[in-house]
Specification:
Helices cover about 20% and strands about 20% of the residues. The protein has about 725 residues and is of the alpha/beta class. Among the domains are: about 60 residues; about 240 residues, Ribonuclease Inhibitor (Leucine-rich repeat, LRR (right-handed beta-alpha superhelix)), CATH 3.80.10. The strands form five sheets. It has a 22-stranded parallel β-sheet, with no helix packed on it. The protein has an eleven-stranded parallel β-sheet with strand order 21-23-25-27-29-31-35-37-39-41-42. It has a five-stranded parallel β-sheet with strand order 5-7-9-11-13, with no helix packed on it. Helix 1 packs antiparallel against helix 2, helix 8 packs across helix 9 and helix 9 packs across helix 10.
């Protein structure tokens, strides 16, 4: 019972404290000081609570963690910090994603017990430097995270005031300058991350004195020179990241001889010359290895096969052309995540079976041969597949795409473009489907999912209509069905296609090719993931009928290509409401005037209306006249700039009447509306006056009676004379 009573008392105390704290630092913008009476009452209440486990030894807050979305103004945050400064036992302060515009001034606050401070992911601090005064707030801090805050300038030496630092994360900023020797004076530092900045110069040898380091990330800066030999003294390292710099010199097995605890190594995009003994057996077992964009080829390094704990391997763009097929493939298919893309591997993978534990496998831009039946289907017998991403585009794979891939319920990204695959197509649970430049045939299947964001089926042999079910894919960003044998009408409901507010961000820099602005452009997958506009390409098919005007109600459309079809009718005037950057309607049977609203497309960078049956004057507008004449050639009845054919008076008059039709209609409607309103107001004014003013009403009826008598006499005389 005593235990139950203590728990109830503790719960009541917590609720009372939560209520009190909510009044002082709640979600409202009005901040208040802690009520002293509430504090006194809490202490009195605490004294009467049975607390056998001493759970209430201190009711003061030890940790504050907020998402920060309330604190969009720095002044509001500083007022709040003033408030929490009355909590002398505060040991942790987490203000991640606060959208701060400037670095908060903390020098006036007595954080006597603060040990952890995290201000990461405050991208708005574009004009902030690391002030010296900040590093005087307390010397108890051992965990400082200022990642992704857009800090600039050099590292201040005042950082040394935080002598107890164990964790320092300054990655993802705009810090620059060279690294000074004093950084090696931290005797307790275990985690150091200064990656993704603009640091340059050589690494001081004193960094090797921090023997307590288990994480060192120097990647993606502008460091040069040789790697200090003293780094080999860091025998406690678990992670070493030095990729993405401009190192020179030779790396041999001696550089890694003391790294027995190493589990993660990143040497990607470095210029080291690797001189490693083929019989070398590393003292470590890695879980992650990145050798991307290095010169480890043409053979796979023999020491790589000793790493049996690997979960993630990236040896893309490394010049590998020769493999021991049996050893190599049995090794890589057992790894959770693999990227061997952009090499010169030409093996036949017909008998290779992907492991059920593989989550992503990238092998694009090689010369792989064979079928995919064993690769995709046999893994089902090994248990439930965890495959999320598969990219084998730009190889020489052939044969029928097996149906079993449609049963991969976890699969979200499938790219098999630019191969020689055949067969019918079924849908799965994908986000990205990239199968362009193959030999798939038959009708387009009805999509049964709504979360597809990229469909690229260009240059196949699909035929028949575009299913109306495509309109149900409401978050589609790229729809590319060009260069097939599709027929029928363009579904009017394609205007439903809108890019999502957010998309899955794939953690790789894989390139996909998108046809827009008259040419093939390379897009990194990350860029596609951030797209806020849609691309539709239905060109080079046999589509007929008119362009549905509903299609132009998609205000997010960036690129539209309907060229090389059999489309008829006029360009809907609704086109002017788009934000198009690229429009291609060439080689169709469109006719009539080019609508004047096309001049509203102020962002248009590519326009091709050539080889249709357009007539009249090309609409005037700075944007339209900036294009070359080839954008309009093949329309014999079209005239005006930028074509060399000038409009004659008849064409100009006729064209002016038509080109200004929308404007004239609007003017006439406004005129008639104004006349109607004016008449109604005047009539109402006269009638209202007669109704309300008695004298006016009597005069009006006397005048009306007199007019009536005159008309009666005149009519009578006329009737007697001529009747």
């Amino acid at each position: 019972m005593a235990s139950l009573a203590s728990q109830i008392s503790f719960l009541l105390l917590f609720l009372l404290f939560a209520t009190t704290f909510n009044k002082s630092v709640g979600t409202s913008n009005r901040l208040m000081r802690c009520n002293e009476n509430d504090q006194r009452l809490l202490l009195i209440f605490k004294q009467g609570v049975v607390d056998p486990r001493n759970q209430l030894s201190s009711w003061l807050m030890k940790k504050i963690a907020v998402c920060g979305r309330e604190f969009t103004a720095t002044t509001l945050l500083e007022e709040w910090l003033h408030h929490i400064a009355m909590l002398p036992s505060l040991s942790e302060l987490h203000l991640r994603e606060c959208r701060l515009r400037d670095f908060p001034s903390l020098d006036y606050i007595n954080f006597t017990s603060l040990e952890v401070l995290d201000l990461s992911t405050n991208y708005n601090m574009m004009n902030s430097k690391l002030p010296d005064s900040f590093f005087n707030i307390t010397n108890h801090i051992y965990h400082l995270a200022l990642r992704d805050c857009n800090f600039h300038g050099q590292l201040p030496k005042a950082l040394l005031n935080l002598r107890n630092l164990k964790h320092l994360d300054l990655g993802g900023n705009i810090l620059k300058g060279s690294i000074q020797d004093w950084l090696g004076q931290y005797e307790r530092l275990q985690y150091l991350d200064i990656s993704d900045n603009l640091f340059y110069g050589v690494i001081p040898s004193s960094l090797g004195n921090i023997s307590s380091l288990f994480n060192l990330d120097l990647s993606n800066n502008q460091f040069s020179g040789n790697l200090p030999e003293t780094l080999g003294q860091l025998h406690n390292l678990n992670y070493l990241g030095i990729g993405g710099n401009s190192w020179v010199g030779v790396l041999s097995e001696k550089n890694f001889s003391n790294f027995s605890n190493l589990t993660s190594l990143d040497l990607s995009s470095t210029s080291f010359e690797l001189d490693i003994d083929t019989k070398w057996v590393p003292p470590f077992q890695l879980e992650r290895l990145r050798l991307r964009n290095t010169s480890i080829g043409p053979n796979v390094p023999a020491w790589l096969y000793t790493q049996r704990s690997l979960r993630h391997l990236d040896i893309s763009r490394s010049g590998i052309s020769t493999t021991d097929a049996d050893i190599f493939w049995s090794f890589v298919v057992g790894i959770e995540g693999v990227d061997i893309s952009n090499n010169l591997i030409s093996d036949d993978i017909s008998n290779v079976t992907l492991s059920a534990n593989t989550s992503y496998f990238y092998a694009s831009h090689n010369s792989l041969r064979g079928s995919l039946f064993s690769f995709l289907c046999q893994l089902e017998s090994n248990g439930e597949s965890k495959l999320l991403e598969l990219n084998l585009q730009y190889n020489h794979l052939s044969g029928i795409l097996p149906d079993c891939w449609a049963n991969q319920k976890q699969l979200r990204y499938l790219s098999l473009g630019s191969n020689k695959l055949t067969g019918m197509l079924n849908w799965t649970y994908l986000d990205h489907l990239i199968l362009e430049q193959n030999k798939f045939s038959g009708s387009l299947p009805n999509p049964v999912v709504q979360h597809l964001s990229v469909i690229m089926l260009r240059a196949n042999q699909f035929m028949g209509n575009i299913p109306l079910q495509f309109c149900n894919i409401s978050h589609l960003t790229i729809l590319d069905l060009a260069e097939n044998k599709l027929s029928g009408y363009i579904p009017y409901c394609l205007y439903n296609i809108m890019p999502p507010d957010s998309m899955v961000l794939w953690d790789n820099d894989e390139i996909i090719k998108i046809f827009t602005k008259g040419r093939e452009l390379d897009y990194q997958l990350e860029r596609v993931a951030y797209r806020t506009s849609s691309i539709i390409d239905l060109s080079a098919n046999s589509l007929c009928g008119e362009i549905p005007k509903e299609l132009f109600s998609n205000s997010q459309m960036q690129s539209l290509n309907l060229s090389r079809n059999h489309l008829t009718g006029k360009i809907p005037k609704e086109i002017g409401g788009l934000r198009l950057e690229s429009l291609d309607l060439s080689y169709n049977k469109l006719f009539g005037e080019i609508p004047s609203t096309i001049s509203n497309l102020s962002s248009l960078a590519w326009l091709n209306l050539s080889y249709n049956n357009f007539m009249g004057r090309i609409p005037m507008g700075t944007q339209i006249q900036s294009f070359d004449s080839w954008s309009f050639v093949g329309n014999p009845k079209l005239c005006g700039d930028p074509l060399p054919k000038k409009c004659n008076k008849k064409e100009g008059t006729h064209d002016s009447k038509l080109a200004k039709g929308d404007e004239d209609d609007g003017f006439l409607k406004s005129l008639y509306l104004g006349m109607g309103v004016g008449f109604a107001v005047g009539f109402s004014g006269v009638c209202g006056s007669l109704f309300l003013i008695r004298a006016w009403r009597h005069k009006f009826f006397r005048w009306f009676d007199h007019l009536n008598d005159q008309l009666y006499v005149a009519f009578t005389l006329w009737f007697k004379r001529f009747g």
